[in-house]
Amino acid sequence: MFGRFFVPLRNPLLGLKNRRTISSLSVLLAVVLIFSACSGASDSKDGGGRGSYDVCVSFDGERLVGSSEYTLCEKDCKAKEQTFAFYPAVLAEKAAVTGVYLNGEKLESTIERSGEKDEFVEVGAGGGRSFSAGDKIKFDFEMTLKKCGGRLGITDKVVNFAAFYPMKCPVRGGECLKRPYAEFGDPFSFDFADYDVTLSVPSDFSVACGMTALKCDQSGRETTYVYGGKNLLRFAFSASEFFNVVAKKSGNRSINYYYYLDETPEKTLSEVVNALDYFSRFLGDYAYRSLSFAQSPYDTGGMEYSGFFVLGENKDEKKYILASIHETAHQWFPIAVCSDEYERACFDEGLAEFLTLDYVRSVDSAYADKLVADARGSYEGYKKSCLLVGKKPSEKFNMPLDEYASAYEYVACAYSASMLAFDSASSEIGRKAFFSALSAFYKKYKFKNADSSDFFSCFSVFKRERVKKILKKYV
Prior knowledge:
- Helix content is 30%, strand content 29%.
- By secondary structure, the chain is α+β, with helices and mostly antiparallel strands.
- The strands form 6 sheets. Strands 1, 2, 3, 5, 6, 9, 15, 16, 18, 19 and 20 form an 11-stranded mixed sheet that branches.
């Protein structure tokens, strides 16, 4: 997520007449989602294959009703219970899981809810039995969406759909990772999964998501799309009747920009294509067959998903482009190489900020110098603010999201200080050596979950110690 801008900058639509706002939709938006991506390796260092999702939802303008079925893989069966995060309990106006099924049989006593707002649903196999690979856990759920510019919400121009389905919590070292939803930052730590499928929407809507439709059929007021593929860390989409789209090819990849307010959309698209090509050259090939991004009245600069990101409106063209480059960098880390974004926000955001800085240096060195100065000013300002109120500034950067005292502290540490640390490490051993190690890290752990030891292991013994000395607080 690009979190520099905590106040949404909304522009009046130039020349657009509001035919009707999405918040007053009367047409049913029916969605069956199975998104596609390129195939890859096992999604865990422990092996055990990938699970898979089948998701079906319908949306009527405010209320979302649907179901999601998850098929367990071998590594899922190491847990006695299967735990799913249901973030709409926090994100939506009202939300509930209304039914849970195991292999088609509805469960009663084996369903447990935990968390202040029922963020988690725990499912036991029942009858003294253990789970087996191939078991299917299905959820029925319903919710009323908020009118907000967040991950899951309705605005007057775009509906954003993210984290709206029960998401299988991963198991690491025998422990289930239950990450509560955080007020700021990205509370995500999940496994890669496969998806197979269909998406039906009213025909006057355009849908932006990370994958290219394999099939499209328009019938009357409804258009149906079919998707299928592998290795998604998380998926999301945005829908709007106001979207225009421009597209560009980069090799065999398709890059698509969905917008409603951009006087130079081709320029915005070209910047993303250039950044995608740049990161592919220095880190390793982009992991998916397509990349789509959608403009939205978003509360922050943007948010990344597999093969897709949302880009918040901004009057400042340079900052708008900067946010798009940051979200593009996230397609490598943590989207293709997964890290625990809840526990290590500095690694997640600081690395993306550093990669953004490195790209900007290649095209505008003066602006890159300004970004470094701004980052230093951000962290120094944070330290001074702490001292003014008698608080000691945080020197522990690799802390979980719930330990940050404020969004101000989070941005100063996870973005600014962390970016400066990565930049210092790169300067210490040389950019070429640093990017060679980053590329090795990406190629070795693509479509896998990686931790700090995996990261440092990709540097030579001598360089590892020099890098670790600088980055140990952040990684």
